[in-house]
Backbone:
């Protein structure tokens, strides 16, 4: 299939042929993720409720699930984070293919699925290179939450790791003053 068309066209075709799957181009390779399970989706619903409760929209930000993030790692590269905290006017930063420029993203969160190494390795690198200020991973494979923040020269410092029973403090961005604590257990399990 790839020899007949561009990488981008091949990704589009896969997206059409695999309803419910997430198709991304990471570091010049097509990555297809199967539809999420119920716990995965419960986490996203809970995050929306949590961010709504602290006045995120009044502070000029939006919380969205599943929008494209255009990446600087290749000419066709894009990711589709599970959850993102973005500028209220993020739609003005449309690049192409329903993907938005990295500068409007303040936080991205991934809940690991069967291809968890993409979230815990590949995306750590590409989100840092894109300059995303905060990256949270609900790593269900290893039963922990990783919090990467403030990339320097395209690399995140080592993450802060959170275990069950702990709360992940989130203050993104500091200039806006949105602060909340996210339960590790709920981030991993999707229920209260």
Residues:
């Amino acid at each position: 299939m790839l020899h007949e068309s561009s990488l981008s066209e091949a990704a589009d075709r896969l997206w059409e042929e695999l309803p419910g799957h997430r198709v991304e181009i990471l570091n010049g390779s097509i990555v297809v993720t199967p539809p999420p399970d119920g716990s995965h989706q419960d986490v996203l619903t809970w995050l929306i409720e949590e961010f709504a409760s602290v006045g995120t929209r009044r502070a000029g930000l939006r919380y969205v699930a599943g929008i494209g993030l255009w990446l600087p790692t290749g000419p066709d590269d894009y990711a589709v984070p599970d959850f993102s905290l973005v500028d209220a006017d993020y739609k003005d930063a449309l690049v192409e293919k329903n993907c938005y420029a990295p500068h409007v993203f303040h936080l991205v969160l991934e809940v690991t699925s069967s291809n968890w190494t993409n979230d815990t390795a590949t995306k750590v690198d590409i989100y840092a290179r894109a300059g995303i200020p905060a990256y949270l991973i609900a790593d269900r494979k290893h039963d922990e939450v990783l919090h990467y923040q403030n990339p320097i020269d395209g690399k995140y410092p080592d993450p802060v790791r959170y275990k069950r029973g702990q709360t992940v403090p989130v203050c993104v961005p500091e200039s806006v003053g949105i602060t909340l604590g996210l339960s590790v257990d709920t981030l991993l399990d999707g229920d209260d």
User: Anything to note?
Assistant: The helical segments are 7-17, 38-53, 116-129, 184-189. The longest strand covers residues 105-111. The chain has four helices and 14 strands.
